[in-house]
């Protein structure tokens, strides 16, 4: 053991961990302002494409935060912090409201696709969550079938019994439900069979290097088969190359999302993407450039 190194290591570690805590604390503090201001939070939309006919069949709603001092903060950083605080209720309400407002604008202009909103485990603990969703749909004049809620597999496993009750109520109300980041949350197969969810989104960590080896390929193929046998519609997340899209197609995967088709887009960008050839018939990126 080199004793001289130990204090330095400890110091470096605790300093950076301290910085992280300070930043988390700041983000949490400033999020209230972000919710109140009307220019810090915004939504982007990533198309979901059917692999068999290349049509855009929906879009995922993703939150963006432009902090006045710290600049753009990734939801990968702030969502987990907000999710552990009471602000998660307001954050989800904000996203649902803004998404449904967009949905109603798009409906009027002929873009009639379901939008998928990410929700967190804490939302399912709210006693009036289902009512709030139903009221938001009514307020915006959107039918429940046009809203999908994405819940991560690990969020479901956190409080399985409560989740099942809440998800059933949402599903009975006609709202679509999907299991996000599938494959990363260790759900039991017997439990998966009981969920009122209709869509499984295979996590991008399984999809990225799909072209690299047999084992990875067999694993994904099994995940697709299993999910479909249980009656799920399967979406592959993080499809970046034509090669991966082709493999997924061969495996019978239903739908896909990823940079190959489009990055998350601002509303105006989404509209031009949708009305261009790629909205209904996507062209591989290679052929465009
Ligand atoms: P997620 O729900 O699994 O969303 C997918 C993430 O993958 C998005 O990152 C998306 O931009 C990214 N992505 C899509 N296609 C590709 C691809 O081909 N390659 C790669 N490398 N990435 C791709 P984003 O927008 O940074 O969001 C990260 C996570 O933050 C989301 O993961 C979700 O868990 C959370 N999040 C985002 N918006 C919200 C929200 O409104 N509410 C909640 N509760 N969480 C949100
Ligand atoms: Mg998602
Ligand atoms: Mg995901
Ligand atoms: Mg994720």
TrEMBL record:
Highest taxon of the lineage: Bacteria
Coiled-coil stretches noted in the UniProt entry, renumbered to this chain: none
Record-annotated EAL domain positions: 24-278
Residues that span the membrane, as ranges: none
Protein name, per record: EAL domain-containing protein
GO molecular function: cyclic-guanylate-specific phosphodiesterase activity
């Amino acid at each position: 053991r080199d004793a001289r190194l130990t204090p330095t290591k400890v110091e470096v570690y605790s300093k950076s961990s301290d910085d992280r805590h300070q930043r988390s604390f700041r983000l949490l503090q400033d999020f209230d302002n972000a919710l109140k201001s009307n220019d810090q939070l915004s939504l982007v939309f990533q198309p979901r494409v059917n692999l068999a006919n290349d049509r855009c069949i929906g879009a995922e709603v993703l939150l963006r935060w432009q902090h006045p001092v710290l600049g753009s903060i990734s939801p990968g950083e702030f969502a987990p912090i907000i999710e552990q605080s009471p602000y998660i209720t307001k954050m989800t309400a904000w996203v649902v409201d803004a998404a449904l407002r967009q949905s109603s604008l798009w409906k009027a202009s002929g873009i009639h696709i379901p939008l998928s909103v990410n929700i967190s485990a804490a939302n399912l603990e709210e006693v009036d969550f289902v009512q709030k969703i139903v009221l938001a749909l009514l307020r915006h004049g959107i039918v429940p079938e046009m809203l999908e809620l994405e819940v991560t597999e690990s969020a479901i496993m956190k409080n399985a019994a409560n989740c099942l009750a809440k998800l059933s109520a949402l599903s009975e109300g006609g709202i679509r439900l999907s299991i996000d980041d599938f494959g990363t949350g260790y759900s039991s197969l017997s439990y998966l069979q009981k969920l009122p969810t209709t869509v499984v989104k295979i996590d991008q960590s399984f999809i990225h290097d799909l072209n690299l080896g047999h084992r990875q390929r067999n694993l994904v193929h099994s995940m697709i088969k299993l999910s479909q046998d249980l009656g799920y519609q399967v979406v592959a997340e993080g499809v970046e190359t034509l090669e991966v899209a082709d493999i997924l197609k061969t495996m019978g995967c239903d739908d896909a999302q990823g940079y190959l088709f489009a990055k998350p887009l601002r509303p105006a960008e989404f509209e031009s993407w949708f009305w261009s050839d790629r909205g209904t018939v996507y062209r591989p990126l290679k052929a465009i450039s």
